[in-house]
Amino acid sequence: MKVAKFGGSSLANATQFKKVANIVMDDAERKFIVVSAPGKRHDKDYKVTDLLISLGNAFYNKDKYKSYYITIIDRFTKIINELNVDDALVEEIKAKIDATLDASLSYEDLMNQIKALGEDSSAKILSAYLQTLGVNAHYVNPKDAGIIVKNDPHGAQLLKDSYEKIYTLREKDGVLVIPGFFGFTKDGQLATFSRGGSDITGAIVSAGVEATLYENFTDVDSVYAVNPSIVENPHEIKQLTYREMRELSYAGFSVFHDEALIPAFNARIPVCIKNTNNPSAPGTMIVADREIDDKCVVGIASDTGFSSLYVSKFLMNREIGFGRKLFQILENEQVSFEHSPSGIDDMSIIIRDSQLTEEKEQKIVKRIYDELHADFVAFHRDLALIMVVGEGMNEAIGMAQTATTALGEANVNLEMINQGSSEVSMMFGIKANDLHRAIKALYRAYFE
Ligand code: ASP
């Protein structure tokens, strides 16, 4: 039994729904189908989830919300009509949106419920459409599927006891179409996962039903070794381990949600990233172990939007508790950190810019001077991180040298290196302006 999850681009319009239906019908093992909300049809289009978020915010703030409402209903109506599915479904979806726009709901409940309507409607439409094609398909609400979660402002978290109930889905008849992105708390409140979280539902269902394979359908033939918008026609990755995928998705490979790796990894369910628009392409497999060849590096990921907090104090290495006090300040300011390379008298802490405000930065710097009596404290902005990823890298000789030589020849200044903390990656910090040049140079050095 397989789980197939279809992302937003796979359900953006009626044509895409038809491709999805063909893929479902093409393999009798595809029993559990998890869907996203309709995504963008073209570059300037909106994802239905974003429209729903705008609708919820406008409604809650008593702003004009009708245009969002109409656009959303129009998108669903068009899909339903073009698929020749019974019109009554338009009314059902409309009634559900109307019922959710309830002024007595708290902001959190309103937003959770409204965000979930994209996936919920997609699942109802796909199951109705499959039925018109003669497939014994059923819509299954996440509550009935047993997806029980704990609410969390950063995204719902699955409760472990869910798995027992999810396993019983195996006994249900036919093809089950389950909306992604949300579950229910023990007391019946709807709670959504973090953005892009339909992947998480797919992984949870895969682990729960003990699927032989979790197929994740998106709009690329495979995961590429490097961002194709930086390097033309990059090498396709055939196989990755969970650890490699984790490192790559951390630093900008957005093909698979990093949180979704956990349930798949724990249950050792192989994941296959495939293309809805080219389903016969083999895709990329994500597995527990792979054979490691002498090339080691599988991919180079990168992301911008980082800052480094630099702290210097003479004899820092001898001061007991310095690190704890420094990190305590960050904790008090509710800031998490990414990496922390250090020297004898200095320490750098890499932080995502999205966590910082000017006010927070000033407060952190002041507290470090006042409380830790540092000699020098400063935030350095506009950093980009590059992760060179591959199993077996920590044992291969000369891996770092290849990178530093390539970067040096490309005239890229290295702000920092972190090697050895992770068994499967090396991290380089550079100025964001140099990023494209650096990635091209590294790709040439490792892959060409
Ligand atoms: N529709 C949700 C989002 O846009 C979840 C998903 O597509 O996976 O974040």
UniProtKB/TrEMBL annotation:
InterPro entries: AceGlu_kinase-like_sf (IPR036393), ACT-like_dom_sf (IPR045865), ACT_Aspartokinase (IPR054352), ACT_dom (IPR002912), AKIII_YclM_N (IPR035804), Asp/Glu/Uridylate_kinase (IPR001048), Asp_kin_monofn (IPR005260), Asp_kinase (IPR001341). ATP binds at K5, F6, G7, G8, T218, D219, Y224. It catalyses: L-aspartate + ATP = 4-phospho-L-aspartate + ADP. Pathway: Amino-acid biosynthesis; L-lysine biosynthesis via DAP pathway; (S)-tetrahydrodipicolinate from L-aspartate: step 1/4; Amino-acid biosynthesis; L-methionine biosynthesis via de novo pathway; L-homoserine from L-aspartate: step 1/3; Amino-acid biosynthesis; L-threonine biosynthesis; L-threonine from L-aspartate: step 1/5. GO terms for cellular component: cytosol. GO terms for biological process: diaminopimelate biosynthetic process; homoserine biosynthetic process; lysine biosynthetic process via diaminopimelate. Transmembrane segments: none annotated. The keyword Secreted does not apply. Its EC number is 2.7.2.4. GO terms for molecular function: aspartate kinase activity; ATP binding. This is Aspartokinase. It comes from Candidatus Pseudogracilibacillus intestinigallinarum.
